[in-house]
Design goal:
Elements (H helix, E strand, L loop, with lengths): L1 H10 L3 E4 L2 E11 L5 E13 L4 E13 L5 E12 L4 E11 L6 E8 L5 E9 L5 E6 L3 E6 L2 E6 L6 E2 L4 E8 L7 E7 L15 E4 L5 E3 L6 H4 L2 E12 L2 E10 L3 E6 L2 E7 L5 E8 L5 E7 L4 E5 L5 E5 L2 E7 L8 E6 L12 E4 L5 E4 L4 H5 L7 H45 L22 H13 L8 E10 L2 E11 L4 E10 L8 E3 L2 E7 L34 E11 L1 H5 L4 E10 L12 E10 L9 H4 L6 H13 L1 E8 L8 H9 L2 E2 L6 E5 L6 E10 L2 E8 L1 H14 L5 E4 L8 H37 L8 H22 L5 H31 L1
Antiparallel strand pairs: 1-2, 2-3, 3-4, 5-6, 6-7, 7-8, 9-10, 10-11, 11-12, 13-14, 14-15, 15-16, 17-18, 18-19, 19-20, 21-22, 22-23, 23-24, 25-26, 26-27, 27-28, 29-30, 30-34, 31-32, 31-35, 33-34, 35-36, 37-41, 37-42, 38-39, 39-40, 40-41
Helix pairs in contact: 11-13
């Protein structure tokens, strides 16, 4: 093995980078006692050690390729590709065995497993030798060309196959989709009869696995197909069945060209000729690099952001991209030529990312002298500092804005005082212009006096909520009834709900239908109508005015919508077509509503008539851009029917970016004009509807509300996690309706049983402790005399009484009252969970 490392391996390098290591492959003939000579495939892996500034051997091994003396074994190609079966990146080596006469060629594709063993993957036989455009791609798939025909084989193909069209000037690449596809680009070979056909001047693409032909000009324009030497697809997607992609290509004209959807976006002049391969280096926050390898051992690196040459090297034996330092970002490994025959396989190399990381050996360049390795926590420290810097800049901008407003107010105040002293008339700007809220009404005195007169002579109006509109919707097998009402903010209401009563026409007693009610503020909750009556309104102050485009015009009026959802089938089965809608609420008498005992109020809202033949198509699903009352009612109906999940997203290291824009672009949601906070995704039918609402509190935190089925929510969450940074945490907010009511009921019952057991046990233990104290204070008597015998009899009688009391214990009234109070509270929670579970069962 040492001879293999020092001699053959250095002269015939077949190297690849895998899992932060560099692996060497070579063939060797070994003698055997029984079978003569046999051919073996040897490999050896090396990992970089910073302390030694050298690559040290990590693992080695061998596999027998052929036992025939006449067979000639050679390595064709080696590359790291994605194994779709195991969903991991694996090292693949393609070897060939040639017969003695050279009439047949046996090919084998081997993979290097995680246990450092070479395992056979694909074997096939050809009557010719592969020479042109041999590629190992994801799958793994082996692809090559022969006589202007593209052949391929894989585990899925089950043999050697060819694509259905013949192409010239072939370029091979693969799409980086979640289900990546291999494709071939080229010019179609046409006969003389079809020389005038339009397709002869177009680039044609063909997907290898399914043979689907597409317009190749969407990837690479026709003028570039003849000069492109290598191609790398950076991003790809499919919108409405049309392929959209971003690629970078190296041409024979010494150009690196950046394409978007078949259009040239940028060009970089390359310093060398004959490019052979393009690799991408992800240096983390420092950016990305394109590493282009050329013939005759030349390499250059190009910045992706600026598309300018970053560095170039010559006399390079091979170039590799991987995380050789284990720091979370990728680096470039350049292995240089002129290796010493007696030395280690890696005597002259350079590891760098052109952003501060540089390790070299056997070079003597300035990079090896001046550059120093970064600290272990360098990247984590920089990321944390950048995050704090972004947050601090945002806070600083807000403080500067507030400071400018205060300066203007102070200047106007000083000017007003100067005018008063000088006897001049003061002209102040309106508070709306400064983005402030007035401490008092800004109307003139005449308006105030007129308003006071109107208040004195105005008749007493009813303080009960006013019903503005009654509506209903049918969504699949559920009926939604809604009421829009207005309430005086000085007499707030709470405990609002709806109930539906059937009117059969024959029975004098109407039946109540089981419903589930919800309350929505229209368009925003009124500040004074808090659900807690003990929260007093804050005194008015001059503070920055928030966005109030959705606030009602009348500040003393709060509009809200109350919905009730019920099952449609029982209504139709009972031959009921008319239903009365009743509003239930509690109205506080004053600000000290907790002291009084408000009684519930029932208000008749009207009737709804059901007709199974009506058209219940949602206007919202047809056109979300409409701004009508019907569309607003459709939105409220969907919010009442769909389950809701609220997710808290926290990104400690990176800013979240434009998540709202990503949802509209990637998922395909559309804004609802009646309420732009909500985004609508309408796949097909009401059951596939999804409503999304994103609220970003800081650049690093936000809340996402998802209204949909559970399956849709999980699918969307999977796509979102793929978009968000890896350090993001997504936590569900407690109290969302998506939580299982059955689980809540089970937890409540468990809590009730545990509380009862612990409470009773604690109560009896306290009684036993008191009895033990009484027993310890007594004196142990011996029946030596008549008096001692009497005391022993008294002790025995107390023991008998204590045993009887354990069977029917008597406890302290205070402790028993505390136990009953705590158990009552626990049982009320269990009853509430049981009620919610029952409602969910009846409505499901």
């Amino acid at each position: 093995m040492e001879g293999f490392l020092s001699d053959e391996l250095c002269r015939n390098p077949h190297r690849l980078a895998h899992c932060g290591k560099i692996t060497f492959f070579n063939r060797k003939r070994a003698s055997a006692t029984n079978d003569g000579e046999r051919s073996e495939l040897l490999f050896c892996s090396f990992s970089f050690e910073r302390g030694d500034n050298a690559f040290l051997k990590a693992a080695d091994g061998a596999a027998v390729i052929s036992r025939r003396r006449s067979a000639h074994v050679d390595i064709v190609k080696c590359k790291c590709v994605t194994d779709v079966r195991k969903r991991v990146t694996t090292a693949c080596i393609l070897v060939t065995r040639t017969s003695e006469k050279g009439h047949s060629f046996q090919y084998s594709l081997l993979t290097l497993s995680s246990s450092n063993k070479l395992e056979p993957c694909i074997e096939f036989k050809l009557p010719y030798q592969m020479k042109d455009n041999v590629s190992i791609l994801q799958g793994p798939t082996v692809l090559w060309t022969h006589d202007n025909t593209v052949f391929y084989t894989s585990l899925k193909a089950g043999g050697v196959k060819q694509i259905p069209i013949q192409l010239s000037h072939i370029v091979v690449s693969e799409l980086p989709l979640h289900k990546g596809q291999i494709f071939v680009l080229g010019l179609p070979n046409v006969s003389e009869k079809s020389l005038n056909d339009q397709l002869t001047s177009q680039t044609v693409g063909c997907f290898v696995e399914n043979g689907l032909v597409f317009d190749g000009s969407l990837v690479l324009p026709h003028p570039y197909i003849c000069i492109t030497q290598c191609l790398f697809v950076l991003a790809a997607d499919s919108e409405d069945g049309v392929l959209t992609c971003t690629v970078v290509a190296a041409t024979s004209k010494q150009q690196l060209v950046y394409f978007e959807n078949g259009a040239v976006k940028d060009v970089c002049q390359l310093p060398f000729e004959q490019p052979e391969n393009i690799q991408v280096v992800d240096a983390g926050r420092n950016g990305c690099l394109f590493v282009v390898s050329f013939h005759q051992g030349h390499v250059c690196a190009v910045w992706k952001e600026t598309f300018q040459i970053a560095s170039l090297w010559s006399d390079v034996s091979s170039v590799h991209v991987d995380d050789f330092l284990g720091c979370g970002t990728e680096q470039i490994l350049l292995v240089f030529k002129d290796q010493g025959a007696a030395g280690q396989p890696l005597e002259k190399f350079l590891i760098t990312d052109l952003c501060g990381i540089s390790y070299s050996r056997g070079q003597g360049t300035e990079a090896s002298k001046t550059s120093s390795p970064p600290a272990e926590n360098y990247l984590l420290t920089v990321q944390a500092l950048e995050s704090r810097l972004q947050s601090g800049l945002i806070v600083l901008q807000e403080l500067q804005r507030e400071g400018r407003v205060k300066d203007r107010v102070l200047q106007q105040t000083v000017g007003a005082l100067t005018d008063v002293v000088s006897g001049r008339e003061t002209v102040l700007s309106q508070h709306e212009q400064e983005g402030l809220t007035a401490l008092w009404d800004c109307d003139d005195e005449s308006k105030d006096e007129a308003l006071d007169d109107k208040m004195q002579h105005a008749p007493t109006v009813s303080s009960k909520p006013q019903i503005d509109k009654l509506w209903h919707r049918i969504t699949e097998d559920q009926m939604i009834v809604g009421v829009i009402l207005s309430s005086d903010s000085s007499r707030p209401v709470s405990g609002v709900s709806l109930s539906i009563l059937t009117e059969t026409g024959q029975s004098s007693t109407p039946a109540v239908i089981q419903t589930r009610s919800q309350v929505f503020w229209l368009p925003a909750p009124c500040p004074s109508s808090s659900s807690s009556a003990s929260s007093f309104p804050e005194p008015a102050a001059k503070r920055s005015k928030q966005h109030n485009a959705s606030r009602p015009n009348d500040l003393n009026t709060c509009r809200l919508a109350v919905t009730a959802v019920t099952k449609l089938t029982p209504l139709l089965n009972s031959d009921c077509v008319k239903c009365s809608v009743m509003l239930h609420y509690v109205q506080r008498q004053d600000a000290f509503g907790l002291v009084s005992d408000p009684a519930p109020v029932v208000l008749h809202c009207g009737q709804v008539v059901l007709d199974i033949n009506d058209d219940f198509q949602s206007q919202l699903l047809k056109n979300p851009q409409l701004r009508t009352d019907e569309v607003r009612e459709d939105l409220l109906s969907l919010l009442a029917v769909l389950d809701r999940w609220v997710l808290h997203i926290d990104s400690p290291d990176y800013s979240l970016g434009d998540i709202d824009g990503w949802i509209q672009k990637r998922v395909g949601c559309k804004k609802i004009e009646v309420n732009p906070e909500y985004l609508l995704l309408n796949s097909s039918g009401p059951s596939a509807v999804m409503l999304l609402r994103w609220h970003q509190s800081t650049p690093f935190q936000g809340k996402l509300s998802v209204h949909s089925s559970q399956l849709q929510m999980l699918q969307f969450l999977d796509s979102l996690l793929a978009y968000l940074p890896a350090s993001c945490s997504v936590r569900p907010v407690k109290g969302a309706r998506g939580e299982s009511t059955a689980q809540m009921f089970a937890l409540a019952l468990e809590n009730e049983v545990v509380s009862l057991r612990e409470g009773v046990s604690l109560l009896l233990c306290e009684e036993d402790e008191e009895e033990a104290k009484k027993k310890s204070t007594g004196h142990e008597e011996t029946p030596g005399s008549a008096e001692g015998l009497l005391r022993c009899r008294e002790v025995w009688q107390r023991d008998v009484e204590r045993t009887r009391m354990r069977l029917s214990p008597l406890v302290d009234a205070v402790r028993y009252r505390r136990l009953i109070q705590s158990m009552t509270k626990v049982q009320l929670e269990g009853d509430l969970a049981a009620l919610l579970n029952t409602q969910g069962t009846l409505l499901s």
